[in-house]
Amino acid sequence: MPSPLAPQVETAQAHWEHFPHQADMGVRGLGPTKESAFEQAAVAVTAVIANPEAVRPVEVVSFSCEAPDDELLLVDWLNALIFEMATRKMLFARFAIQIHDHHLEATAWGEPVDVVRHQPAVEVKGATYTALSVTQEPDGRWVAQCVVDV
Amino acid sequence: MDLQRLTQRNPHEWHIEPQGKMRVPGVIYATESLIREMDDKVYEQVVNVATLPGIVKASYAMPDAHWGYGFPIGGVAAFNPDEGGVVSAGGVGFDISCGVRLLRTGLTVEDIQPLKEQLADTLFHHIPAGVGSTGQVRLNPDDMEAMLVGGAKWAVSKGYGLREDLALIEEGGCMAGADPACVSDQAKKRQRDEMGTLGSGNHYLEVQRVARIFDDTIGASFGLHEGDVVVSIHCGSRGLGHQIGTEFLKRMAVSASRHQIALPDRELACAPIHSEEGQEYLGAMRAAINCALANRQIITHLVREVFEKLLPQASLTLLYDVSHNTCKVETHEIDGKPTRLFVHRKGATRAFGPGHPDLPPSLRAIGQPVLIGGTMGTASYVLAGTTKGMALAYGSACHGAGRSMSRHQATRRWQGREVVKELAGRGILIRSPSMRGVAEEAPGAYKDVSEVVDAADEAGLAKKVARLEPLVCIKG
Fold it and tell me: Which residue segment(s) compose the domain that A70 sits in?
């Protein structure tokens, strides 16, 4: 089984990774579209807490958020996810996102936290503006990232 | 950090001379070796804080300073409301009023030795900790309002703890000026079933032994003697504080340009104290302080229940309860004149010196107990505020060790089970729902807390009184 902290390659292009921050953790989503980069960034948030592969997609939650630019939209999206994880005591590992004019609609699949099976390491308090960027690389690939406070 | 960029004033005080948009100098209290280890980001963040409107005297960093959000962790800055001063959500952080409470037990190490395993198991079972845990207290809307206004005082009125606890908590256990109307429904929802929970990450509950007393007189005044058993609780305002931090960070980042504030970093999000955003943040942030005080009060009650059951001869009394992520209104002498300032401490502990009117009568002659958390394998410290410290950085000191290694690096280096086994071999019992969490919090992932505490003592920020070593550690 791969390490929960190693990048999980879902397709040839879309994947997530963590990058170091002294006290906390950086989350990064990469994909062929902005939407897929946002989806992968969300998987990276789950991976801060537990191994996303151990999270079963048995319940569905819908999200919607809006922000003046892509970067604030990424932080809003991840904070909306963190809020639902905290109040529903759930983990999510599969996401489908649509973005139109800085308006985001998301569907997330997950399940209630199971301490024994998920071994959750740490709560995520919030997504921050540190190392925040949403960019399209010269090769067309989208990268969405920020540091989350744990 | 590059020493060439600093002017050394004495072995423990380093200045960043004002340059560019800096309104005041930067001042870092640390030894040369701690400065060398500090991230360059600390320099950048100390400089950025020094550019904010209304900042007074200097932008300070404590010996444990490390890369934070906007402010460095270990940052202290005060703003004058009458000179366009600001209040910053980034300057307080996400875990509003995170802090440490220390309880004496009246027991010695010999008293608890035969029951240590049982004590560890029962504390772990009785005090909710970790991701997804919920407390026994469920707050209806009326209770929520009362808790946000009343803090630990509310908790005592509900039967959690004793009336005499309150005098030994900052603000007498109840932060004035809290306004629940400024707290969003989302923040309240996030807190509904999280009262009396420890949280996760670097939060903990420890049973500790007093390993060494450095100052016999102050130690005796604090009721601490070598061989005594004490309990430390390190946690904050839980989901409510996190949500308030998240919401106001965004609101202040967006409103900054309207207030003609040029933010060098969005995380420095702030608003003039005399503005709608500033006032609403203060109302919400003070409510979060009350939430943290109530939370530590409920956990204290749960700890007392455990000791009552297993060690009924114990008597758990507060030494003190200090917060290290706050913004508070304090009066300090500026240019010979008492001045009302909004003092931000982000990962810095208030450390008022002897004679300060805000200290309870039992501590006023000695100075405030300053509680510094360590790691589960090293040590924590008790210091006392000093007269000198009041003049250095508004009566502030360090708050902990600070990480030297990211969580990612720590999990690659250590296995949780091995850390638990190694510490058990040294007589330290760890209880945690998550072995990965234990690996991420391995003692080796943190800096040497003793070096940080020595630097704070030598700089005169606070005086070293006692070293505490863990016997039992409950991690979230």
Answer: 15-149
Quote the tokens at residue B287: 């409510």
3 state SS for B234-264: EECCHHHHHHHHHHHHHHHHHHCHHHCCCCC
Q: List the beta bridge partners of residue B470.
A: B208
* Closest to B31 in 3D by CA, of B456, B455, B392: B455
Q: Which CATH architecture does the domain made up of B3-404+446-475 adopt? A: Alpha-Beta Complex (3.90)
Partnered with residue B235 across adjacent β-strands are B99
The structural domains of chain B, with segments of one domain joined by +, span 3-404+446-475
**Min Cα–Cα distance to chain B from A150, Å:** 6
Q: Considering its fold, how many domains does chain A have in total?
A: 1
The confidence score (pLDDT) of residue B402 equals: 82
Tens-digit pLDDT profile for residues B43-52: 999 999 999 9
- Whether residue A42 is contained in a domain is answered as yes
ipTM comes to 0.90
Arithmetic mean of pLDDT, B376-382: 94
Window 190-219 of B, Cβ < 8 Å to A: 190, 192, 199-201
Place of tokens 């925040």: A132
Cβ–Cβ below 8 Å for B436 and A121: yes
Confidence of residue B69 (pLDDT cuts 50, 70, 90): confident
Residues of B tagged active-site = 399
Instruction: Indicate whether A109 belongs to any domain.
Output: yes
Q: Is A1 part of a structural domain of the chain?
A: no
Contact B132 A121 (CB under 8 A): no
B245 to A123: CB separation less than 8 angstroms, yes or no: no
- Reduced to 3 states, what is the DSSP secondary structure of residue B175? coil
Contact A123 B189 (CB under 8 A): no
pLDDT of res. A1: 35
Residues 21-50 of A with CB under 8 A from B: 21-25, 48-50
